[in-house]
Structures are given as structure tokens and as C-alpha cells.
């Protein structure tokens, strides 16, 4: 997704304010700090990623935003490069989500030591 956005920025001159979608994705991704928890199985010593029903609901909303409603919403606000805006939003979201998971994992590992 990043390559497509960079290509469009150089070839089509995508405006710089589209980076706000990236930062918006990071902000929304911070929710995953609250939604995920990591637990260690004492018998096997393996770590398990736990999530609740709220995580499933947010994931379904984000999937529908990405594939069904996102383009329509951005078109109604007359954004010219809707696919780039969605790509940037989800790049920020995934980056923030993985940072949250790694954060929980590190906290659990350090608490075990």
C-alpha cells in the first residue's frame, strides 16, 4: 500500500494533507491498546492474544469502511484520491495496532522476568 501511495504522490501530485489520514489511522489504532491483552498459559508457557467482542465489532466496522463505505464517504467530501486516503489511514492503523500488540507482549515478558 505504501508503494502505491508514494507512486501517486510523485506521479499525480497527491496533496500533503493526505498524511492526516495516516495520523488518523494511528489515533484509531491506539484503541487496540485497550482491546487486546496477552496472557501466558502457565502449563505450556505460550502466550495468547485475547480480544473481546468489542474488537470484533471494531474490526467489522473498519472492514466495511475499507471495502464498502470508505470510498463513498470520501467521494461525498470530494476527495480526489480516495484510494490513497484509505491506504494511508489503514497503514497508520496497522502500524499502531502492531505497536500495541508488541507493547503488551513486552510488558508481559518483562513482568515474567
Task: Outline the structure in words.
The longest helix has 31 residues. Helix content is 71%, strand content 7%. The chain contains five helices and two strands. With 113 residues, the protein is mainly alpha-helical. Strands 1-2 form a two-stranded antiparallel sheet.
Give me the secondary-structure topology:
Layout (H helix, E strand, L loop, with lengths): L1 H10 L7 H11 L2 H4 L1 E4 L6 E4 L2 H24 L5 H31 L1
Helix pairs in contact: 1-5, 2-5, 4-5
Quick summary of this structure?
It is built from 5 helices and 2 strands; from the N terminus they run αααββαα. α1 (2-11) runs antiparallel to α5 and α4 runs antiparallel to α5 (82-112). With 113 residues, the chain is mainly alpha-helical.
Low-confidence stretches: none
Distance between the termini: 38 Å
Strand and helix order: HHHEEHH
How many helices does DSSP assign? 5
Which structural class matches the secondary elements? mainly alpha
Physical arrangement of strands within the biggest beta sheet: 1-2
Number of distinct beta strands = 2
Q: Tell me, briefly, the overall form.
A: elongated
Largest sheet: 2 strands, antiparallel
Task: Supply database-style keywords.
single chain, 113 residues, mainly alpha, 2 strands
Amino acid at each position: 500500500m505504501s508503494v502505491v501511495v508514494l507512486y501517486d504522490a510523485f506521479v499525480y501530485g497527491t496533496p500533503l494533507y493526505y498524511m492526516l489520514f495516516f495520523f488518523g489511522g494511528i489515533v484509531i489504532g491506539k484503541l487496540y491498546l485497550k482491546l487486546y491483552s496477552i496472557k501466558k498459559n502457565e502449563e505450556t508457557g505460550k502466550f495468547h492474544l485475547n480480544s473481546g467482542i468489542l474488537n470484533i465489532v471494531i474490526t467489522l466496522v473498519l472492514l466495511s469502511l475499507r471495502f464498502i463505505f470508505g470510498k463513498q464517504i470520501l467521494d461525498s467530501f470530494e476527495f480526489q484520491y480516495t484510494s490513497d486516503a484509505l491506504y494511508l489511514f489503514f497503514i497508520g492503523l496497522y502500524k499502531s495496532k502492531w505497536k500495541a500488540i508488541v507493547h503488551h507482549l513486552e510488558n508481559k515478558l518483562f513482568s515474567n522476568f
